[in-house]
Amino acid sequence: METAALPARPVLPRWSGWAVALLAFLLLWKFGAGLVPWAFDYPRGWTVPAARWITGFTKWLLNEATFGLFTFAEFTRFIAAVIDFPYRIALSLLSTGFLKGEGSAAVQITPPLSWVAVIVVFALIGLRAGGWRLAALAAACLGFIAVFGQWQSAMVTLASILVAVPLGVLGGGALGILAWRSPAFERAIRPVLDLMQTIPVFAYLVPILFLFGFGPTAAVVATLIYAMPPMTRITHLALARVPGELTDLGRMVGCSRRQMLWRVMVPASMPALMVGVNQVIMLSLNMVIIASMIGAGGLGFDVLAALRRLDFGAGLEAGLAIVALAVALDRLSQAFAVSKAGAIPTGNIVERHPYLASALATILIAGLVGLVLPAVQSYPKAAELSTGRFWSDVVAWINVNFFDAIEAVKNAILLNLLVPFKRFLLGLPWLGVAGLLGYAGWRLGGWRLAALVAVLAGLIAATGQWEKAMITVYLCGISVMFAMLIGVPIGILAAERERLWTVVRAVIDTLQTLPSFVYLMPAVMLFRVGDFTAMIAVVAYSVAPAIRYTVLGLQGVDPRLLEAGRAMGCTPRQILWRIKLKLAAPEILLGLNQTVMFALSMLVITALVGTRDLGQEVYIALTKADPGRGLVAGLAVAFIAIITDRLIHAGARAARTRLGLGEGAA
Amino acid sequence: MTEKTPETRDAKLVCRHLWKLFGARGAEVLAALGPDPAPERLIAAGVVPAVRDVSLSVEAGEIFVIMGLSGSGKSTLVRLMSRLVEPTSGEVLFNGQNLLAASEAEMTMIRRHKMGMVFQHFALLPHLTVLDNVAFPLDVQGAPRAEREARARQMIELVGLGGREGAFPRQLSGGQQQRVGIARSLAVEPELWFLDEPFSALDPLIRREMQDEFIRLQSVLQKTIVFITHDFDEAIRLADRIAIMKDGAIVQEGTPEEIVLSPADDYVRAFSGAVPKAKVVRVASAMRAAEGEEPTAEVAGTLTVAEAAPLFLNGTERLRVTDGQGATLGHLHRADILDLMLGG
């Protein structure tokens, strides 16, 4: 009875909290500089010397740490041996041939597989997995590599891929199975996986260099760290998604734990697991160039060397060879993912394994013929083509004829957009930014998210990297803005035009198989080093997810709603703006998230063209072999990624809930 | 309605006061709230009651149908019977042995050799052929290849899929896939056969065909069967006895005839009201005591009234009702039949 008399409490509009928070932020920004200078420049005295700690820790690990039975150094040597042994075999098989003796005194006992044999084996795998067209594609990719004179390097790269992929699949799969068996383990490794996927690769190159030395082994370790997490995630997800009836079946027929896993769960989730294998292959190839910084050799080294010489043509050819390898391996592994087991063949051992038999026969015959005809053993130098000079000429021609125009555009954007935005961000107080991020976290996802976001932002400041982090944010922000401005309209256009979407999808699929360094080269050629060049490369690299998610979001809108819209007499424009884009907003937000992630990973690489952000810090640490400095800067990049990711995800979730609940009310 | 206790001499499977509460502290909550807590109190305590105090007994050789709508707990109940789902409290006796006291290893042996299960969505292994799918339970037991394949071929023949041994599940229609599921569940010659909504995922016409097939199989095999369905007509058609579930508890248990003629409450009536009584009521229940002159035409007491009705087409007023040996049980009157059929 008492409650009835209460007057309606004035309800504050939803934005009032934001208004207060922003006002507080503005006050701090405008008038705080004199009152609380430490909120602007993080005081040196308070800096946490995390970099020194980590460097010290690495040295301790290497020199003193022991597990009782064996020391840490012995442990890393053991891992190195596990990787090194199969790598030696793969390399001998593909590149060097089996040798006797060491160094220059080595005598070749058997030559490596001839290029003809390798191409035929690839074609046979294609034939087995997907038929003639795939066989032709695989052979063409490898043939391309041979014709353009990249064979030797490509085989070195292939050898490390052949070692890294099985290890990544087995290791990632094993972790995924453990995570599926034990929820506690799953909870424990999830943040580790998050970190492994968001921390820029450069950052852990240094510790790896320390622990494993310079060389292909270290490169494979780095590749594994980078390529394994998706396999773990996919394995766990695939096993968890096996229908409950199948697990019931397994228990009903009395499977043991092992039978349950290997006879029921793994076969039933095989298609999904093959997607994981494909991911491991593609990520390993992504790592090829970066891994060559710590001694992987092969195509990656060629690209890197060309980039350092600013030899666009040579870099492009080596880069395209990586793409050819990637396309071949990608299509082959995808075909295996969807290929169906046929009838079980019968007969003798050759009849039962026709592909294996023909592959072995080809290797043998090509090897023997190769002893007589050198052209069969290794692709003849005289028949090699090179377009490197042509590309270099094209770039030179553009530079000669359009230098002024390019320069004008570059300077206009730099002066009017990049520089002011950078100044603005650098002038913001770190305390205010951390607080504002925390408030956003609280509004979007509650106090846990708020605490996470604010603490991570605070940690960046506390390790003395605020300024560099802001430069990263500025470059990333501008690039993402351009990527979205380009990608979303393309996505909107493509979503409604089936033919256009087919073309666009083919283009962005190809763009995503290109190693990120390839983006850097034309940008450097045309715009030379600097922030603008970095921005162009980042935009080119990160536009793909912006397009993809926009299309997915728009195409995912319930067609009944569109029909209802048309029935109500909406114009196509109204349907687009008032129905489609509204409902696709959560998906487009996720696209924004992916774009940011892509941009951040590319940004670190653009350190090579002279940015001054966290990426540069990591890169310097790499050249100075300073594990602490590299890891701390790398973690700061990871923190930026995590903050963005969590906030956008929470925002997308909130938007989805709102769309689900508020359709009628709004 | 001769027996009240759920146990008799021939009981294959007996459940006594079986409870399943989903939630972290199911057992504690049940112990705290006493012998028969109301569902609302359970939910308030943070657990979800899926099966509440179920007692039933499945006789050897009978088809025991558990019928309920989705969410009634019937699928959980059938999984409690084989301990695929661990009961919160109660007893499950299989051949007199308390399954809840059995070790995991014992349970594995019982499931391997004495139980078979057919699943709603077939649960076929996509990477195995029909032959390997059917042989799978034997393979898991470690039976030699020749033996398990011979047995699997027999079963495939039995369900009418001979010739498709080499096919993969994705190459078969839904009805064929479920035949594989049935063959697989029978491969170990189970004593107790669970069918969890085996025909629900099939088209109505195929469903009917599979029900006929099932009746044919059972006439050959004489298994003890627990059959789950949400389809009342299917239950009436197949069951020797039916238990109707609602909100995790059994609301009525009896023969199809009993359930149609005397539904326990409005919930059961909502289903049974739509079923023509003539299709359920047996001649033996509709007859009167034999009196007067003996009619020449006769009818078996086990037929349903609907099946017997055509015998009156020639104008006969009465039929002699006989048992299996041909002895007279009573007389069936045309007027009674008409009343029953017209009355719905």
Automatic annotation (TrEMBL), chain A:
It is found in: Cell membrane. The chain crosses the membrane at residues 15-40, 61-85, 105-127, 134-152, 158-180, 201-227, 288-307, 313-333, 354-376, 449-466, 472-494, 588-610, 630-648. Keywords: Cell membrane, Membrane, Transmembrane, Transmembrane helix, Transport. Residues 150-333, 469-648 form the ABC transmembrane type-1 domain. Gene3D superfamilies: MetI-like. It comes from the Bacteria. It holds the Pfam family BPD_transp_1. Its main location: membrane. It is a multi-pass membrane protein. Belongs to the binding-protein-dependent transport system permease family. PANTHER family: GLYCINE BETAINE/PROLINE BETAINE TRANSPORT SYSTEM PERMEASE PROTEIN PROW, GLYCINE BETAINE_PROLINE BETAINE TRANSPORT SYSTEM PERMEASE PROTEIN PROW. This is ABC transporter permease subunit.
UniProtKB/TrEMBL annotation, chain B:
PROSITE patterns: ABC_TRANSPORTER_1 (PS00211), ABC_TRANSPORTER_2 (PS50893). InterPro entries: AAA+_ATPase, ABC_osmolyte_uptake_ATP-bind, ABC_transporter-like_ATP-bd, ABC_transporter-like_CS, Gly-betaine_transp_ATP-bd, P-loop_NTPase. The complex is probably composed of two ATP-binding proteins, two transmembrane proteins and a solute-binding protein. Belongs to the ABC transporter superfamily. It is an enzyme of class 7 (translocase). It is found in: Cell inner membrane. It is a peripheral membrane protein. Keywords: ATP-binding, Cell inner membrane, Cell membrane, Membrane, Nucleotide-binding, Transport. PANTHER family: GLYCINE BETAINE/PROLINE BETAINE TRANSPORT SYSTEM ATP-BINDING PROTEIN PROV (PTHR43869), GLYCINE BETAINE_PROLINE BETAINE TRANSPORT SYSTEM ATP-BINDING PROTEIN PROV (PTHR43869:SF1). It holds the Pfam family ABC_tran. This is Quaternary amine transport ATP-binding protein. It catalyses: a quaternary ammonium(out) + ATP + H2O = a quaternary ammonium(in) + ADP + phosphate + H(+). Residues 24-272 form the ABC transporter domain. Its EC number is 7.6.2.9. Gene3D superfamilies: P-loop containing nucleotide triphosphate hydrolases. One of its GO terms (molecular function) is ATP binding.
